[in-house]
Design a protein that fits this description.
This protein has ten helices and seven strands. It has helices at 11-20, 52-58, 77-98, 132-151, 172-175, 179-191, 214-218, 231-236, 245-249, 254-257; strands spanning 2-6, 26-31, 42-46, 64-67, 102-108, 154-160, 197-202. Helix 1 (11-20) links the parallel strand 1 (2-6) and strand 2. GO terms for molecular function: oxidoreductase activity.
């Protein structure tokens, strides 16, 4: 299989390339910066995800796409639109034009960030974006559904939690995902025969997890790592931190707290 990783020079892209080394016939990266170092089965293409011609060129000869290119932070909508909205549209439209039938869409926990931490949710919970960033991921999920239903471009929608090397906060203990677990679930999305437009959560086997990830387990996901094995590192990251009530109450944390004017937050029990 020949795969394209958009955002392949970024934090998540580098992890996936490391975990996938030697597994696929070709890993081609597409990013604003070159991917370094390049492995023996890798190619690096430099380009802008908002440029359809560049995306379509990078898609040539590819069997499947892992789409991770994005503006990863909350920002003005003008900053988010080019990569997260136009770029995601370009990926799916280029896949359709080039005959690519499988896309892994790197969505986010922030697509459902306004659920309270006391509520455990699954993939069927309606989206509740916590930010303009989260809203852009909801749009990407809807784009994935359109292209699966209308054009046969199948997707695994991967709502990624916290993909840091180690969990760095109490919140991350619930949503952290290791590099090898993230690669495992991406591989399922690339290879499982029964994918249509499935939603799963990109989290490891965390005891404090807010998500019912049964949909991923039914596809064969068996996470190998646990956030609680790194509790000391997570709590060290909390030293000196001040949190707004919305940060502590909602699953989206600081993305919910920014500009929050939604009313009273129940006290933390």
């Amino acid at each position: 299989m020949k795969i394209l990783i958009t955002g392949g020079a970024g934090h998540v892209g580098r992890k996936l390339r490391r975990e996938f080394a030697g597994r696929f016939a070709l890993i081609r990266t597409f990013d604003m910066a070159p991917a370094e170092p390049i492995g023996p089965n890798e190619e690096s293409v430099v380009g802008d995800i908002a440029d359809m011609a560049a995306v379509e060129s990078a898609m040539q000869g590819i069997d499947a796409v892992i789409h991770m290119a994005a503006e990863p932070n909350e920002a003005p909508i003008e900053t988010i639109l080019p990569a997260n909205v136009i770029g995601t549209w370009n990926v799916y439209e280029a896949a359709r034009r080039c005959g690519v039938k499988r896309v892994i869409f790197g969505s986010s926990n922030h697509a459902v960030g306004f659920y309270p931490r006391t509520q455990r949710i699954d993939e069927l919970a309606p989206v509740r974006p916590d930010s303009r960033y989260g809203l852009s991921k909801c749009w990407g999920e809807a784009t994935a559904a359109l292209y699966a239903d209308k054009y046969g471009v199948k997707s695994l929608i991967l709502r990624i939690g916290n993909a840091a090397d180690l969990p760095g906060s109490e919140r991350a203990l619930a949503i952290w995902v290791s590099g090898r677990d993230l690669a495992q679930i991406c591989a399922i999305g690339l290879e499982h025969p029964d994918i249509h437009c499935n939603v799963v959560f990109g989290v490891s086997n965390n005891a404090a997890c807010w998500y019912d990830n049964s949909a991923a387990y039914r596809l064969g996901y068996k996470p190998q790592d646990r956030a609680e094995d790194h509790t000391d590192a997570a709590m060290a990251g909390e030293v000196g931190q001040q949190h707004e009530p919305a940060d502590l109450y909602f699953q989206g944390g600081p993305f919910c707290a920014r500009e929050y004017a939604g009313g009273m937050i129940p006290p933390k029990s």
